[in-house]
């Protein structure tokens, strides 16, 4: 079965629906949402409605730092813009949305795969996987052959070699086989706020039978998502960055 | 013994890395079963090589590689990973290499077959990185098949063969055949395979390996600055064009080698058009000055980057320009030259073949038909050269051919297929009388050619609506 892995959706309904439609056309049977479902974008409730439907159909989701921020707390680990958007998001959420977010686990294991938002090494610390050192720490913290993570908003594939970890920038649309003699860390790009210079939404398709992962990029109406952010009174920078993927 | 729907027959080879069996499918088709040697004391590169081969072979297609049948990580007998591929019966090039030096026509035939197979591999975005006679088999029709992809790299997949965490000095390749840049850790450049092809051609032509079989890394690194003895110094009867081809494959810097294996095959097929330089003429190498220059260049070279075969090939297209030398339309010729210039300047490694078609059947049966044909052929060739003069391109980038045929489209399409043409540029005939005669040529070429076709029309000459 093929699983679509959607990370860092950030309340971007246009990007989420575009990725889900694309994934279904690629044969995805179900969805795993890798955290940061909300925050930054203007459609938290509509996004959570879509996600809730998928969870009822066998989909899974884990919690991200922005999901946690939307539930409460002072958000001292977030910058001003992220904090503003977290406070705005809190006001949009009803009890049903809060209940959904509060029930999300920090990580979950399914067969060969481990799903986590930031890093399997102390998931609640929200460590960024910024290089081979943090990737090695993440892989060492679990015995799952394949770890899926997000949080960084930059797609990259890590794999173990003799005495270390190497990286590979996968070509979008090309399936990469995940050999069983190595361990793999599939760092996903962001659905709702790409930051690698490409404004197209990013998600991954995991084929459990074939044991392969395909990185996908999906162009979507980012101008519409940006207009909604401005109309909602959220910081303008959150709208601007969508057009440049930065 | 049964294995994945196959009946396993004999063990045919047991190497340091893998064991090979002959197996038979349910319908009796012979197949090759390959399993890596894992476990205590096995070579660490053993699994990396096996996993690389399985991953890459599954992505390859065509007559120049063994067809991938099936593969898996675990087997019912608990023996670990396995791979079943097509059984290629033909002889290995190692047998011919043992007879070297070979006659010229055999060197050319084998060289062109291997270059063709190599280009087919590079076109699929894969660099072999271990090309040597033992890894080349021949089908009954003479078609070369490349085997053993344990060190190969695919432009769109992780480089699993390079299984070392930090930079280390173990070069990936066979000492006698490895190119200079993989010795520095550069992987994925298709021109590294062209260097190995040069070593094979050198061996077939002279009976000697250009750099011997060094055992130490220092010994291997000598090829970074030292020239091998010139083939014609070892075997004086070899033609200059062959030495030119061999030495150009063996250039130390990848950018001085042929851009593609298709160009090597093209030159072997048309030796009279090879532009002979000092590389082909001289009986001695560049001497200590050249060696010192190269040593300095190597010592100061930037760290290697991974390249992708497909990106490189995209910049080195073979462009066929179909020219009608008999119906000269100056405006159309200018427009076509402009189109060729744009392609040539966009891709500075592009090779431009200027081609026309001659219908020899027209004078068959006439008195002195052969003589008439020879004279016409020469005249057409001169017309092609004349046409290309205004392009202002270096002679090295241009080739000229007069093809035979009664209808121009057929020979152009056949040539495009045989010579790995990537792009055809041809003119649209403006005048309606000619179009009735020739207009269908571009339509047929566009429909049947194995590549992109640009049909050039001169400005202000829109076709009349019939």
Structural topology:
The complex is a heterodimer of chains A (246) and B (466).
Chain A: E1 2-6, H1 13-25, E2 30-33, H2 44-56, E3 60-61, H3 65-71, H4 80-92, H5 95-102, E4 107-110, E5 113-116, H6 132-140, E6 146-149, E7 156-161, E8 164-168, E9 175-177, E10 184-187, E11 201-207, E12 212-218, H7 222-231, H8 236-244
Parallel strand pairs in A: 1-2, 2-3, 5-6, 6-10
Antiparallel strand pairs in A: 1-11, 4-5, 7-8, 7-10, 9-12, 11-12
Helix pairs in contact in A: 3-4, 7-8
Chain B: E1 2-3, E2 6-14, E3 18-25, E4 30-36, H1 45-57, E5 68-72, E6 82-86, H2 93-98, H3 104-123, E7 126-127, E8 136-138, E9 144-146, E10 153-154, H4 180-183, H5 190-206, H6 217-221, H7 231-234, H8 240-249, H9 261-269, H10 278-281, H11 287-299, H12 309-314, E11 318-322, H13 330-346, E12 351-358, H14 369-389, E13 398-404, H15 409-418, E14 423-427, H16 432-448, E15 452-456
